[in-house]
Amino acid sequence: MTLTRFRWWHITDVLPVEADLFGAEQWSAAMFWNELANGHHYLAALDDAGRVLGYAGLSVAAPDEAWVQNIAVRRDTQRRGIGRALLEALLAEADRCGVRAVLLEVAVDNAAAQQLYATYGFEPVGVRRGYYQPSNTDALVMRRDADHD
Hints:
- By secondary structure, the protein is α+β, with helices and mostly antiparallel strands.
- It has one domain: Gcn5-related N-acetyltransferase (GNAT) (Aminopeptidase), CATH 3.40.630.
- The protein is 31% helix and 37% strand.
- The chain has 4 helices and 7 strands, in the order βααβββαβαββ.
- A 7-stranded mixed sheet has the order 1-2-3-4-5-7-6, sandwiched between helices.
- The chain starts with a strand and ends with a strand.
- Residues 1-147 form the N-acetyltransferase domain.
- This is [Ribosomal protein bS18]-alanine N-acetyltransferase.
- Belongs to the acetyltransferase family. RimI subfamily.
């Protein structure tokens, strides 16, 4: 697996992953285009044949904070450390930018993701009621301060 800068040509490959993982709450191509146009830090995890295994994005508002926009790993390649590698790369970028805290939202019913984030020092700081639409699922807001070991 190789981590590389997420480029516009990866969008077509990530849309089926979005549909599979997030259903009605999937991001559209336009949303990914907007993220890239705004200069956010996005990475794609590729296999040896150049196929997208996963992707992740970070929005940096230095020096105060950065927000993990998304982390997604193709269902058939989960549990192989890809999500962990993507998260570590986003946290390294946040450190490089000198932000004081990294925040993210995660569905309250996504215990596996919450556990992964907790192993990297993220702690719950709030809940956004009905954040994910159209399911009306709440989002747990988690934060990791820069001084985390």
